[in-house]
Every structure is written in structure tokens, then in C-alpha cells.
Amino acid sequence: MLAGRYFAAAADYGTSLPSQTGTALRIKAAKAFARSNQLDASLGQLRYALDEGFRNDLLLKTDSELQSLANRPDFEGLLHDASRRAREFAVTHRNAESAKLEFGDVERFWTAYDLAKHARSSAEKATIFRAHYLAPGTPGLIDFFRIKIESAEALVAKIESMPGYYASIRAPSLTARELEKPIRNGIARLLALYPEAAVPDITFVVGRLNSGGTAGPAGMLIGLDIWSAPPDAPLDGLSVGMQELIRNSALKRLPFVVLHEHIHSLQVFAREDTLLDMALAEGTADFFAGLALPEEEKPYYYRWGLANEREVWAEFEKEMSGKDASRWIANQSRATSKWSADLGYFVGARIAEAYYARATDKAQAIRDLLIVRDSSAVLKASGYGPK
Fold it and tell me: Is this structure's pTM higher than 0.90?
């Protein structure tokens, strides 16, 4: 019950922000209240979320933590409203050419960066970034700040610890707009594969080297600090795994990255807490991005995984029912030459690839991989498991 109250209070503060970031907290509050059997409070938070712009009807239908509400008549009304909002959004967001690509936050970051050079302390720098980067930022930046950056102080600390790196990415990050056409072409190919897909807004930001991309209520969020490093960027201070990630990242990879995050915006998992769930979510995003962009080179961890597939699968099979993804996803700090980072992405992509290859109805296979009620059933139906 206390968790529900805390999330609800945080969401109340979120209503003052120019974004839907508070809706994510409303859903967390609703789940927490449902877990403690406070069903009226749970329904109340869902109603707030819809009033604030939430529209993911599939999540409401499939999330296991909300199923205690399923027989409530008022829950049916919430589902109806969410479905209507989803349809209305899809009608106006199914065109690759008119999709919103927002680059303004990148320019605001460098404005704040220049101003902060004259600050006398780290605290003053943080104040400058709050005033000149976050405060005038887009809804996408606000989401990214909440999900990944976390605080202006953390952002300043990262910049101060790697001044040469940030200086090296400035010019490339400001050329990201030049990739708008190939990004739109990639979205168009994805829509050809899955015509009912909506296209959320896409916001490009500069963060603190802990995310190349994620998704939030505002849409797709792309961290150009990961993708803008030139070949000679100084990487001292980064883990071996993060250095490998950045060396294998390039601005030309943005279409693939955007499509990966686009898939995340379309996915619905009934559960998402086991390693198998998480790997399938990430791997499916990679697989469909590759399906839409077959000319793109596969991610570096895919090459490593193929070369060591039997060993990788044997280890994954032991752990896939657990909830610890620390060896498999976003584990750059632990990666070595003997164990690549992000092998969970690789395994998930191989499962999705096998499932799609076996399917006679490819359109239905796409739906099955995007709306997953049982990851174990998907794995079994895929037939994946290197011998």
C-alpha cells in the first residue's frame, strides 16, 4: 500500500511537467495498489493515467498485476477509453514522412555545456544544465532525464570525468539531423511489415553515457552521446565493455537504433521480469530492426554470440527462468574478451528469428512476437536451442 501512495504522490508532481512522464508513475501506483488488494485506489490511478494521456490498452489487458481488476465494470470502461485513445493516436501517427523527429534538445545541451564552462563549481554547472537544458526541454528529454540521466549533478559528474570525450562528440552529434531521410525510410519499411503500427515521436538527446536509447510516454528517446563518438574519441575511464560498445557504435547506425526503440513502443509483455522475458523483448526489437534494414550490419554482440552460440545457450538456459539479467543485458561494466556484453539481446534475437522462420503466417508471427503472453511458449514454438 505504501508503494502505491509513494508512486501516486510522485505522479501528482509529474502533472506540473510539460509531458506525460507522470503516467508511467500512475501505472506503477495502480499495480502497487492492486498487489495490496486496494482495487478502488488502483482503478483511480488508472483513471488519472488516462486523463493524463495514457493509451496503452494492450498493457491493461495483459499485465498480470492488473488482472485482479478484470471483472470490475469500471475497469471495462477504462479499457474502452484506452482503446479509443490508441485508435485515435494510430490514425494520426502512421506515416513515416510526417513522424516527428525532434533534434532541438541536442542544440540546447551544447548551449548549456558552453555556459557551464564558466561556472565556478559543479553545483553551479548543474544549475545551468537544469535551467538551459532540462527546463526548456521537450517532453522526450524530460522522460529521458527521469529514466536515464536521473539528476543534473550526475550529468555534470560524467561530463567532468570525461571532458575529452564530450568535446569529441559535439560536432558529430550536431550532424544527426542529416540522417533524417534514412531514418524515415527505415520506419516506412517497418510499417510495411506491420501496417497497424503507430509511430511515436522520436527525440534525440545527450545523456551521461548510460543509454543509447529507450522509450517513455513521450515516445522514442535516443542518446546521441553513445552514437556520436568519432574513431579517435578518448575512452579512458570507461569499462572494457562500454569501450567495446562505443567502438562498435556510429552515427550511421541511428536508423537501426530508432527502429529498435520503435519496436519497444509496440511491444506488450504479459510479464517482463524473467531473464527470458527481458531477452526476448530486447532481441525481438533487434530482430525486427534487422528485418526492416537487412543491409545493416548486425550488432557486435551478435557476431560474438554466433561464434560461441552453444556455450551462450547453455549458460542462458540455466538462468532464463530467474530475474537476474546482470550477465546478459546492459552489462558493459562486466564484459570481458571471454564474455561479450548484451548477449541477452543475441539470444532473444535468435529465438525471434527461429520463431519467425518456422511460421507459415508471417504477419501473425509478427503479432505473436510483439504481444507476448508467455515467453516460454514462444521459446518452445521457436524450436530454438543450438545442438
Answer: no
